[in-house]
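input
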Amino acid sequence: MTDAKVMTIQDISCYGQCSLTVALPIISACGIETAILPSAVLSTHTGGFTNFTFHDLTDDIPKIMEHWMSEGIKFECIYTGYLGSLTQIKHVKDLFRNVLKEGGLKIVDPAMADNGKLYYGFDIEYARAMAGLCADADIILPNITEACFMCDKEFIASNHTQGYIDDLLTKLKELGAKNIVLKGVSYEDSKLGIVVYNTETDEKDEYFNERVAWTSHGTGDCYAAALTGAVLQGMSLYDAAALAADFVVESLKLTKGDDSHRYGVKFEKALPMLVERLNK
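output
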């Protein structure tokens, strides 16, 4: 087991399983000490809820960073999720410089888009700024939509060709990304998977699961958190990426059919599987 400390910066949705309310318990279950830096506080997440409250914490981020610096606090890894503005992206770059240990790991989940569309409030300028943040990262975790926006490429939902995926990975490499885990790859309707690409060695590996006939908010956050925990416990990036995929699939299966639970997945029930696999 490792004594590494990770800091994750993203929003808190007080109700609804996503962002920090997912990242903190999952990474902690992996045996990793986890610090949080909230970028905003919402009463619920924005998917399927109305009239939610929102409190922006952008101005607090540099103050928290400065306090950490005064205390000599640094982290072996910084993992970023949903960031609400261009200013927050800039603050993350400052965090990388100031509170990440030398040689520390930078993991960026460019959580900004899905199903061919940017999230509410984002535009192409934001996508380009996120591409710049990804260029600074050691590991990036875009889905197909996010990759397309960062690379100015046409979005195709499924039935991808090998050429389409390879071209997308090449364009992400050109942005400066070092290790890419491309999510949502689908060569056939019945399967959904990932491609792990080391841009320095030019090695590409794929991993697929049977597609679960159930969709939910927060699965990308569950994936990123599980991968982060597994990598920090010493797993190779490919093994961590595959385990994270299995964890999300298990979480979806445990939620499937419960129409009252459309706001997230029952990831808590899948944590024993995650921990068991990590400890093998």
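quick obs: The mean pLDDT is 96.
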